Amino acid sequence: MKSLLRRLFSPLLNPFEQGTEPYEYKPMSRRILIVISVLFSILTAVTFFLSPADAGLAIAFPMIIFGGASFVCLIVGSLGSERAVAKIWGSR
């Protein structure tokens, strides 16, 4: 199942997993990335439910940003390699 999901999300994972430079991976980084994903998804939901009904498209921008960040963090945190997790944190 994981290999199927990795193939499905390979366009998102490939930029983070490419490279040959050394990296420093800490197992806690993966857990923190998933927690950040949950926090961003909560922020997206709160933004959606607390927005006024007449907000229109003004509410779309924060929801796209926070929802996108949540999605990327969740995919890289759960399916990404050690290199991808280290690269998203910027460790070299």
Question: Can you give a write-up of this model?
Answer:
With about 90 residues, the chain is an all-alpha fold. The protein has a domain at about 25-50 and about 60-90. The protein is built from five helices and no strands. α2 packs across α5 (about 80-90) and α3 packs antiparallel against α4 (about 60-80). The longest helix has 24 residues, at about 25-50. The mean pLDDT is about 90.
The separation of the N and C termini measures 30 Å
Number-wise, the strands total 0
Helix fraction bin? over 70%
Task: Calculate Rg over CA atoms.
Answer: 15 Å
Topology record:
Blueprint (H helix, E strand, L loop, with lengths): L1 H7 L1 H8 L9 H24 L9 H20 L2 H8 L3
Defining key terms:
elongated; 0% strand; 73% helix; mainly alpha; single chain; 92 residues
Report a brief summary of the structure.
With 92 residues, the protein is mainly alpha-helical.
